[in-house]
Write a structure and sequence with these properties.
Structural class: mainly beta
Largest sheet: 28 strands, parallel
CATH topology of the largest domain: Pectate Lyase C-like
Family: Belongs to the glycosyl hydrolase 28 family.
Number of helices: 3
Shape: elongated
Number of strands: 28
Main location: secreted
GO molecular function, one term: polygalacturonase activity
CATH class of the largest domain: Mainly Beta
Radius of gyration: 25 Å
Oligomer: single chain
InterPro entries: Glyco_hydro_28, PbH1, Pectin_lyas_fold, Pectin_lyase_fold/virulence
CATH superfamily of the largest domain: Single-stranded right-handed beta-helix, Pectin lyase-like
Distance between the termini: 84 Å
Keywords: Cell wall, Cell wall biogenesis/degradation, Glycosidase, Hydrolase, Secreted, Signal
Length: 407
């Protein structure tokens, strides 16, 4: 019996050792850190650290860490950085870990570019760390006159993500962007969570997050308060999931505008849920130009939304023309079709008399629009009654609808 027990013990230890060796062989390698201080960065808030940041990224990107991650570390301190672009593809998974503060230049001669901090052509990018990017937008906002000046120069977006796949952005803060805070272009499977984007309500064009030509984007558990849209979904946005976002101040969360380009545009598959809007200019908005090449918005669900003193809580505007330079229908013979849009379980207060305002085209009416359990009260002490308006809208309503009388 003793020999049998000894044999079984030997066999067990042999099997355990084999599994342990296999586990060790297959486990990830430890991360390799590339601290920007090691490449000459100086955290004094004044020295231009663009080259040091680029050197750290380039070396990390080229380093083959097999199954591990390469981490570009920005430690505590304030680092001034001019325009910098972090390019892939890289040989290992990349992490940009921001612990300190990155500050944009305040010199007007360095303002005019489309990107301040950019990430491009990277698979598996992670940007995190709890730090802050400070766009110092107060120095640049006087130059943002594009609404009235067609010859205006471009001001930079604080952080751009172009051609990023399987990425994550979390636990960051962006303040006072010169233009928008984050822009996503041609990204796929990007998860953004626990971020805070802030700029004064009067700051021009400081959108929180702009999404274009991107699929499978998730945004959650974030606070966005800006001078423009908290989130804007432009053409090519598909399968967008937005949840637990606090928006305010700002212009709300928008789809569009669509229909101002010379090609077919679309937004499809948007889910926006469990979000809160506080004192925003708009709440949930779909905006399209009055005439365009054939384009569409479809499969949109807004649900579980709280409105607190919002000026235009629910709005579809197929006549959106902010600068009065839109084409006429007879010139383009097309338009933007809006169908399968649901507003569901929305409550709170409106500071405008028209809380539900769905204005669609006579030539291309909105199709299959649903209003389900809407309960909005007037935040004003005025004796006027709050109303809803629906023009050229085909749809239905269910449950309690306040204000009533629209569908």
């Amino acid at each position: 019996m003793a020999s049998v027990a000894g044999g079984l013990l030997f066999l067990f230890l042999h099997i355990f050792a084999a599994h342990a060796n296999n586990y060790i062989a297959s486990s990830s390698s430890p991360p390799k850190f590339f601290n920007v201080l090691s490449y000459g960065a100086i955290p004094d808030g004044q020295t231009d650290n663009s080259q040091a940041f680029s050197k750290a990224w380039n070396e990390a990107c080229k380093w083959n860490n097999r199954n591990g991650q390469n981490v570009v570390l920005v430690p505590s301190g304030t680092f001034m950085v001019n325009s910098v672009l972090f390019m892939g593809p890289c040989r290992s998974r990349m992490v940009f870990m921001l612990r300190g503060v990155i500050k944009a230049p305040s010199n007007p001669s360095l303002f005019f570019t489309d990107t301040w901090i950019g990430f491009r052509y990277i698979n598996g990018l992670v940007v995190k760390g709890g730090g802050t990017i400070d766009g110092q937008g107060n120095f640049a906002w006087p130059y943002n006159d594009c609404f009235t000046n067609r010859q205006c120069k471009t001001l930079p977006v604080s952080m751009r993500f172009d051609f990023i796949t399987n990425g994550r952005v979390r636990n960051l803060r962006s303040i006072n962007s010169k233009n928008g805070h984050f822009t996503l272009y041609s990204c796929n499977n990007l998860n953004i969570t626990k971020i805070r984007l802030t700029a004064p309500e009067e700051s021009p064009n400081t959108d929180g997050i702009k999404i274009g030509m991107s699929t499978n984007i998730k945004i959650s558990h974030s606070i966005i308060g800006t001078g423009d849209d908290c989130i804007a979904m432009l053409s090519g946005s598909e399968n967008i999931d937005i949840s637990s976002v606090l928006c305010g101040p700002g212009h709300g969360i928008s789809i569009g505008s669509l229909g101002n380009n010379v090609a077919k545009e679309f937004v499809r598959g948007v889910k926006l849920r469990n979000c809160t809007f506080v004192s925003t200019q708009n709440g949930l908005r779909i905006k399209t130009r009055p005439s365009s090449f054939p384009s569409f918005v479809s499969d949109v669900i807004f649900s579980g939304i709280t409105m607190a003193n919002v000026n235009n809580p629910l709005i579809i505007d197929q006549q959106y023309c902010p600068q009065g330079n839109c084409f006429y229908q007879e010139e383009r013979n097309a338009g933007v079709m809006i169908n399968d849009v649901t507003f569901m379980n929305i409550w709170g207060t409106s500071r405008s008399e028209v809380a539900i305002n769905l204005q669609c085209s006579e030539d291309i009416p909105c199709q299959n629009v649903k209003l389900v359990n809407i309960n909005l009260a007037y935040s004003s002490t005025s004796a006027k009654q709050m109303v809803s308006k629906c023009v050229n809208v085909k749809g239905v309503s269910y449950g309690r609808i306040q204000p009533s009388g629209c569908l």
